[in-house]
Amino acid sequence: MSLTVQEKKDIKKQGFSRTGGIPRTMYYTPDGREIEAIPSWRGYHRKDKEGNVIGSGTRDANLDKGWALVPPKDPLPYCAGCDKWHDTQEEVTVCIAKKEERVKKWEEYAKKERAEEEETQRKETEELRTEVLELKGMIYELTQALKSEG
Predict the structure, then answer these.
(1) DSSP 8-state class, residue 15
(2) Which domain holds residue 90?
(3) pTM exceeding 0.70
(4) pLDDT tens sequence across 62-75
């Protein structure tokens, strides 16, 4: 059985199948998505220049994330590049292009670093091989000397 969007909203509004737990609040992102989350209440204090408390209260920290309690009238485009919202689609395109540029730059840096590390490891491995061969030669000479004595 499939439900329409309106039927789903009506069922949610009635609280169908809610059996308890911490109450959740419906938040809306600037691009219009709905998020049902537990309010994150935090205490705050406002102070003047001298440090005296001039006001205090509680606030919902979820609102600091850019979420709102009402759906936006003009939804903002969501940017997958920075996981935030921009005023125009052009800004989103520019932001994603900048991120891709940064990623490319870091990939080039990582390749360079990896190449240097591989070269260092190759040299160290070659030195170890040489040392092992020298040790083998010394052991062979010792065993030959012991055989000739005994």
Answers:
(1) T
(2) 76-150
(3) no
(4) 999 989 999 999 99
